[in-house]
C-alpha cells in the first residue's frame, strides 16, 4: 500500500544529505555501468572473432608441405615435401564421406599477365570449382571455374572485383575479354569477390588446375589442398570430427612421403575451427573475468549503501526511540529504513543501466578495432543484473534496519 508520509520522509532525508546520497548512488550506478560496458566489450570481442573466422568457411582446413626437420628411414632432414595429384586423388577417394568440398591449388612461377600491352601484377592460381565455397567467395558476374573447364584444360580465367575495378574500369563488364598469360590467351568468364576485409585475396585470378599444370610446366605438382567438412549439430561435434579428419590426413601424408611421425613441421595444416576453439575459450575466460570485476564493483556499491544506512540509523537513533515509545511496530521501522535503501539502489542502478546501454548503442556500431565488433549486451541480462542489484540493496538495507529495531527505547531517548 502506498504510504505518502513515508515517501516524504525518504525525500526529506535525501534532501538533508544530498552529497552523501549522491556519492552512494554514484558508487552503485558506476558498478552497473562498468559491468554492462565490460560485458558489452566481451560480446564485441566474441563478435569480432566470429567475423574473422567467417571470412572463410568455418569447417574448412588448408594443407601445404614444408621441409622435414627429423631424419627418418635413412633420409636426411631438410627435404622439401612436394604434394602431387595422386595425393589429392587418394585422399578424396578414401575420405569422400568425411568432407563436402575439396580443392587443390597450383601456383605457376614466372608468369606474366598482359592486357592490351599493359603488364598486370596479379598472381595466377590453378584450382577447381570447389574453392569458391571453401574460400567463401561470391560471384559478381559470370561464373566460376567448373568441372568441365578442368576436364577440358580450358583457357578461361576468373578475376576479382579489385582487378575488374583497376583494369577494366572503362568497360561495363570484363566478361568475354581476353588476358594474355605467358603468351596464351585466356577468356574472362567470371568476376568474384571476397567477404570481409582481406583484400589480399582479391590480388589473385583463377584458372583451371589442369590448365595451370600443363601450360606452365607444373606436371602433377600441387602446392595446397583445401577441404571443407560438413557442419554438425554442435560446435564440439564439429571440432571432434575436424580433429579426426586432420589426424587421418596427416598420417596418410607422413606415410606417403616418408616423414617421421613425430615431425610436426613437414606438413602444415591450418585449421580455423581449432583456432576458433582456442579463441572462444579465451573469450569465455575474458568474459568471466569481466563478470568477476563487475560483480565486485557492484558489491562495493552495495556495501556503500549498507554503510550509509548504518549512518542513517545512527543519526536517527533518537527518532527511532520516540517512534517505538509511541507504539511503532518493528516492521514499520524496518520498512522505513529499507525503503530508503531500495529507492537509492534502484534509482542508481537503472541510471547506470540507461547510461551504459545508451553509450553502447551510440558508440558500439562505430567501433573499428581488430577482434572487436559492435560491442553490445543483451538487455534482459543487463536488466536482470539491476534486479539482482536491487535485491542486494534490499538485503544491504535490512541489517541496518534490524539494528534499528533492536535499539532500546531508554538508550535511544538518551542519545544526543
TrEMBL record:
Keywords: Cell membrane, Membrane, Transmembrane, Transmembrane helix. Residues 21-237 form the MacB-like periplasmic core domain. InterPro entries: ABC3_permease_C, MacB_PCD, Macrolide_Exporter_MacB. It holds the Pfam family FtsX. Residues 292-408 form the ABC3 transporter permease C-terminal domain. The keyword Transmembrane applies. The keyword Transport does not apply. The chain crosses the membrane at residues 21-41, 288-313, 333-359, 379-399. It is a multi-pass membrane protein. It is found in: Cell membrane. Belongs to the ABC-4 integral membrane protein family. This is ABC transporter permease. It comes from Maribacter chungangensis.
Amino acid at each position: 500500500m502506498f504510504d505518502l508520509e513515508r515517501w516524504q520522509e525518504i525525500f526529506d532525508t535525501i534532501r538533508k544529505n544530498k552529497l552523501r546520497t549522491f556519492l552512494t548512488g554514484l558508487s552503485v550506478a558506476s558498478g552497473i555501468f562498468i559491468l554492462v560496458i565490460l560485458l558489452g566489450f566481451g560480446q564485441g570481442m566474441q563478435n569480432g572473432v566470429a567475423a574473422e573466422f567467417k571470412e572463410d568457411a568455418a569447417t574448412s582446413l588448408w594443407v601445404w608441405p614444408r621441409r622435414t626437420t627429423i631424419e627418418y628411414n635413412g633420409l636426411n632432414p631438410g627435404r622439401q615435401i612436394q604434394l602431387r595429384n595422386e595425393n589429392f586423388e587418394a585422399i578424396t577417394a578414401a575420405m569422400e564421406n568425411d568432407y563436402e568440398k575439396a580443392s587443390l591449388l597450383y601456383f605457376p612461377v614466372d608468369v606474366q599477365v598482359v592486357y592490351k600491352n599493359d603488364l598486370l601484377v596479379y598472381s595466377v592460381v590453378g584450382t577447381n570449382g570447389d574453392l569458391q565455397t571453401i574460400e567463401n567467395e561470391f560471384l559478381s558476374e559470370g561464373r566460376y571455374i567448373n568441372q568441365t573447364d578442368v576436364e577440358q584444360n580450358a583457357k578461361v580465367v576468373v578475376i576479382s572485383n579489385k582487378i575488374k575495378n583497376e583494369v577494366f574500369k572503362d568497360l561495363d563488364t570484363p566478361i568475354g575479354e581476353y588476358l594474355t598469360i605467358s603468351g596464351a590467351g585466356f577468356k574472362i568468364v567470371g568476376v568474384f569477390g571476397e567477404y570481409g576485409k582481406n583484400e589480399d585475396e582479391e590480388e589473385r585470378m583463377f584458372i583451371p588446375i589442369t590448365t595451370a599444370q600443363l601450360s606452365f610446366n607444373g606436371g602433377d605438382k600441387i602446392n595446397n589442398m583445401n577441404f571443407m567438412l560438413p557442419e554438425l549439430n554442435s560446435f564440439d561435434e564439429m571440432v571432434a570430427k575436424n580433429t579426426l579428419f586432420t589426424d587421418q590426413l596427416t598420417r596418410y601424408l607422413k606415410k606417403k612421403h616418408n616423414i617421421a611421425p613425430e615431425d610436426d613441421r613437414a606438413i602444415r595444416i591450418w585449421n580455423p575451427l581449432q583456432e576458433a576453439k582456442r579463441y572462444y575459450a579465451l573469450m569465455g575466460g575474458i568474459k568471466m573475468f569481466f563478470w568477476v570485476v563487475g560483480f565486485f564493483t557492484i558489491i562495493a556499491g552495495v556495501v556503500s549503501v549498507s554503510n550509509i544506512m548504518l549512518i542513517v540509523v545512527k543519526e536517527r537513533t533518537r527518532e527511532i526511540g520516540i517512534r517505538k515509545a509511541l507504539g511503532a511496530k518493528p516492521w514499520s521501522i524496518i520498512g522505513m529504513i529499507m525503503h530508503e535503501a531500495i529507492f537509492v539502489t534502484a534509482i542508481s542502478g537503472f541510471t547506470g543501466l540507461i547510461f551504459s546501454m545508451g553509450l553502447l548503442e551510440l558508440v558500439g556500431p562505430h567501433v573499428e578495432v581488430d577482434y572487436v565488433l559492435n560491442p553490445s549486451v543483451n538487455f534482459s541480462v543487463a536488466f536482470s543484473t539491476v534486479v539482482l542489484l536491487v535485491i542486494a540493496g534490499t538485503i544491504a538495507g535490512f541489517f541496518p534496519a534490524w539494528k534499528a529495531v533492536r535499539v532500546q527505547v531508554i538508550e535511544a531517548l538518551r542519545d544526543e
